[in-house]
Design brief:
With 308 residues, this protein is mainly beta. Helices cover 13% and strands 40% of the residues. The protein is globular and about 60 Å long.
């Protein structure tokens, strides 16, 4: 997902989408998942030279990714759409105080607390940690290297590092992570109600549509089993003065002022599938070297000076 926070930041995307040819290129790639340059040019009836210019604009904007494919006839460029959503923030910030940004990330194996139930498992980039469906291995020291974890119900909780400058208060927290349901095997239609908590307060629930395994994740290692979770959806959770949002859609009225967070505060983030949820479809959390986005749990905190 591309997150555009202001109009100036989105200028390249606006230019990239301001062409019917480039929009048609995106449609083709969405229909076919990936195509090489010759296939795209032939489908659109344009020259390779003209296509190169269009693809360059789409690549610069972050919408399209080019992957070299080595064949017996040399290097062929393969293109695919590299985002599932584009989110624009057009709200005007009327705060008189200047806000600053602090960014950090949390590896998915660095949870501080957990309680999980099978089906469940944990793995690094290179191998499984212990045995599947045995929650005891979530306590293994090797868990700090985990790049994928999954469980049917229960929770994992993370401590978000708070290294804000002295005398600052938190105005907004944005958390981005790749996540999906957890079905026995794989099932793209497997809804799961995943609930998020901040410092033990429930801030909202999002229903994951499925546990995706129709194609291998872009970054999922080759040793990973083909009938297991392959990739998730990149979701963006935002808590600000207006409430709590997932990908720009409000999921609760719990707002950031409820927590009175500042530079001294502990910030604990919990991901849970409740035992009383309507859809107990589990959760899979993807870290670097798994799935489609090659990232840990990314955190962006907006802060400003505390009032005297």
């Amino acid at each position: 997902m591309l997150h555009i926070r202001n109009l100036a930041e989105g200028l390249k995307i606006f230019k990239a989408l301001g062409s019917e040819v480039r929009v048609n290129i995106i449609k083709l790639l969405l229909e076919n998942r990936e195509m090489n340059m010759n296939e795209i040019a032939s489908s659109l009836g344009i020259t390779n030279g003209a296509l190169t210019n269009h693809i360059k604009k789409l690549e610069d904007s972050g919408i399209v990714k080019i992957i070299p494919e080595y064949t017996g006839h040399g290097n062929q460029k393969v293109c695919r759409v590299d985002v599932d959503k584009i989110l624009f923030e057009l709200a005007v910030d009327n705060q008189e105080e200047k806000e600053e940004i602090y960014t950090t990330e949390v590896p998915i194996g660095h949870y501080s607390d957990y309680r999980v139930f099978p089906t469940c498992g944990i793995a690094t980039r290179d191998a499984m940690i212990g045995e599947v469906d045995d929650p005891r291995y979530f306590a293994s020291p090797e868990r700090v290297n985990a790049q994928i974890i999954w469980f049917t119900k229960g929770y994992v909780e993370y401590i978000i590092p708070n290294l804000l400058p002295v005398s600052q208060k938190i105005d907004q927290i944005t958390i981005s992570l790749e996540i999906s349901s957890e079905a026995p095997g794989i099932n793209n239609d497997w809804p799961s109600d995943i609930t998020f908590h901040l410092n033990d307060e429930e801030i909202g629930t999002w229903t994951s549509p499925g546990d995706y395994g129709d194609v291998r994740g872009i970054f999922t290692p080759d040793w990973w089993f083909p009938n297991w979770n392959q990739y998730g959806l990149l979701k963006m959770l935002v808590i600000n003065k207006e409430g709590t949002f997932i990908d720009g859609l409000k999921i609760s009225d719990v707002d950031i002022t409820h927590f009175s967070l500042n530079y001294k505060s502990s910030i604990r983030f919990k991901i849970q599938v409740r035992e009383d949820a309507k859809n107990i479809g589990g959760v899979t959390i993807f870290g670097k070297n798994f799935g489609n986005y090659n990232q840990n749990i990314a955190v962006r905190i907006k802060y400003s000076p505390m009032k005297p």
